[in-house]
């Protein structure tokens, strides 16, 4: 049972499903980790807003030095400070700015350029205030932008998560549907296969086992008997004067009679290890495993009676006015090593003796008698 399951299409499909689901789940986890990595990278980019703040802090410090000098004396050499301020301001000014930031920065830009031309203490102080304002403004904007990004990130993450869940659900639903269809088809094929197997060993008219299956069982009967230490029996059954029956009643009635006799045999020999075959024409065969002489003889007597009890009219029979049968049987004793061919020959000889002795009877082969 386990071996069949391991070889079945169902197991292979289950393995396919597990593989697909595992792939989807791993892909989802990897995708999620990449999103987190992306978030970190973008977060670092947004925190790069600190760079403009650093630039502005440098500008503020330099303006502080200039203002401190101008407070003490009028003539101050602030060329180096001016050079640093203009250099840092140019970087800050040309960096990315939002629309609102650009409006604020443009108003201050001209004032910074003019401050060195006018060289007044109060102007430097005023610029210093403006730069400090920009530092606070940039800090606030950085937090605003980061908050907006985090909100967008959460929305994107949720969107991705729900899409992944939906994809997994739909994939699972499709896979389950495919599995059910394949299992259904597999069951149908199994049923059909069993049907064809049964049909391959069954006689179409009588529904008994056919000659081909008889050859298989009968050829192995001695080996089965030897292996299990069983006595086994083979019975040949022939309907008496069946040719005359067909000539009198027609082949259609002959087929009906064959079916009735076959059904009677099948119902009587319906236990485990009992096999009934149609050997051809009006001839039948019965193989019985694990049996003895007394049981066999009782079976043969019963079969003669049961066929007569069918009361199938046969007015051209030379012995009775109803259908009857003649039988020949042989018992195989374990380890007697008689070939299947000889067993068949001896059973056939026994059947011939039954016919020779007047029919409607049986004869059991007894070696030496």
What would your notes on this structure say?
There is one protein chain. The relative contact order is 0.08. Helix 11 links the parallel strand 4 and strand 5. Strands 2-3-1-4-5 form a five-stranded mixed sheet, with helices on both faces. Helix 2 runs antiparallel to helix 6 (about 120-200), helix 3 runs antiparallel to helix 4 (about 80-95) and helix 3 (about 50-70) packs antiparallel against helix 6 (about 120-200). It is rod-shaped and about 155 Å long. It has eleven helices and five strands. It folds into two domains: about 1-200; about 210-365, 2-Layer Sandwich (Alpha-Beta Plaits), CATH 3.30.70.270. It has helices spanning about 1-5, 10-45, 50-70, 80-95, 100-120, 120-200, 210-230, 240-250, 250-270, 295-310, 340-355; strands spanning about 230-240, 275-280, 285-290, 325-330, 360-365. The chain has about 375 residues and is α+β, with helices and mostly antiparallel strands. Pfam families: GGDEF (PF00990). Keywords: Membrane, Transmembrane, Transmembrane helix. It is an enzyme of class 2 (transferase).
